[in-house]
Amino acid sequence: MSGFLKRLVAFVIVGLLLGEIVSRVLVLNSDVPRREINQYGIQSYIPNQKGDFKGGAHQWQINQTGWPGPMPDSFDNVVTILGDSFIENFMSPDSHHQNSLMKKEFPNYNFYEAARSGVSFIEAMEISKQLDSLQPKMQIIHLHDSDLRESIVQIQALSDITQVDLESQKIVFGEMKRPGLKLVLYNWKFAYYLFNRFSPSFIRMIHPKPKEAENKKVSDPDFLPQYEALFRYTKSNYKIADKLLVFRPESDSKIVDLATRMGFRTIWLDSKGDPSWTFDYDHHWTSFGHERVALQLSNEIKKRKLLN
Q1: Rounded to two decimals, what is the model's pTM?
Q2: For a FRET experiment, which of 39, 108, 215, 225 has its CA 20 to 30 Å from that of 186?
Q3: CATH numeric code, 29-304
């Protein structure tokens, strides 16, 4: 029996080693940058990291300020671009990030991205406040209806997302969840591959969603009074004159209209008539999608003469 156990253990160890080698050589997982809580209470990335996207077709980078993508040539005439994973955009090379594409349209300006997966609207406003010292000509904030919903404690308290408590009028900063476990998984590539491959099915198996929960959909227009209160809080606590809110195509018209009525400059992107902007297997924008976003955005900025 002991001989069988030894062979079994040896087989498992060899299998894990081979799995690790294959995972690293074939880049079965996208490398994931490590996060930290910066001096302002915001989750950003540890500066100066690099890694491969799944398949190894391109690399991502975290610059010296802790945000994805390259640094601008200069902070003169700077325009900031803020958002969540759509702007973080690890799925595309640097040449198809919004800062690179917008620079082609406005060569006299420098574009600086500050984006991270999970950024809520109110967290984007907090980040913008820290960037005010750069004296940006404009701060472009890309968002979706869900970024407003996730900003409000009274709708749903989310411990890992920065939110505002509209009753106490205080910001509740997001916490990093299980950083130790994530560090192990991100460095043990084969384990991370197995986790990504099988954990969703395993979680659904042991915690099946009730049918009524599967059929229940969140309707963002139902929260218009809360969104109005969120916009009032934003106007009272942040500079909005230089902000431009860019809503994704699937946003609800009532929410875009509300933001406009509340005094925000808004642009509502439109993907109708185009080939799909998103991947077949993922809802994020492809390189083509990013090009169309940058083109629509730059055309509207020129039309309105928002940048001289």
Answers
A1: 0.84
A2: 39
A3: 3.40.50.1110
